[in-house]
Write a structure and sequence with these properties.
mainly alpha; two-stranded antiparallel sheet; 56% helix
Length: 115
C-alpha cells in the first residue's frame, strides 16, 4: 500500500472555492487578494513548467562548508523546454487560468473604488 502524500495544491483549490462561494459575505480585500494570489501562483507555476529562468539563483553552483572544508556542488542541470503542442497545452491552460484569476482580482479591486 502506498504512502499518503500531502499536496498543498488541493488546499489552495479548496480555499479558492470557499472564498468564491462566500464572495458576497467576505470583504472585497480578501476576495481580490485571494484571486490575484492564486492567479499569480498559477502564472509562476506555468513559467516554471515552461523552463523559465530561475529568479532565486538556483542555476548557480552551491557552496557549503563541512568540518572546515569548502565543498562546491555543480549547478543543477537545465530543464528542457517544451517543444511540441501536446507538451505546451498544460502550460497554456495553467497560464491562461492564472491570468484570468489575476484579471478577476483586478476587476474586484477596480469595482471597490468604482473605477
Amino acid at each position: 500500500m502506498g504512502q499518503l502524500r500531502f499536496d498543498q495544491r488541493w488546499l489552495i483549490l479548496v480555499g479558492l472555492i470557499i472564498v468564491l462561494a462566500n464572495a458576497s459575505a467576505l470583504p472585497w480585500q480578501v476576495v481580490a487578494l485571494s484571486l490575484a494570489g492564486v492567479g499569480g501562483w498559477l502564472l509562476w507555476t506555468a513559467w516554471q513548467m515552461a523552463g523559465g529562468s530561475s529568479l532565486l539563483g538556483r542555476d548557480a553552483g552551491h557552496v557549503t562548508y563541512w568540518r572546515g572544508q569548502r565543498i562546491e556542488r555543480p549547478p543543477l542541470p537545465r530543464q528542457r523546454r517544451p517543444t511540441s503542442w501536446p507538451s505546451l497545452a498544460p502550460i497554456l491552460v495553467i497560464g491562461l487560468f492564472g491570468a484570468a484569476l489575476v484579471m478577476a482580482g483586478l476587476v474586484v479591486f477596480l469595482r471597490a473604488f468604482e473605477l
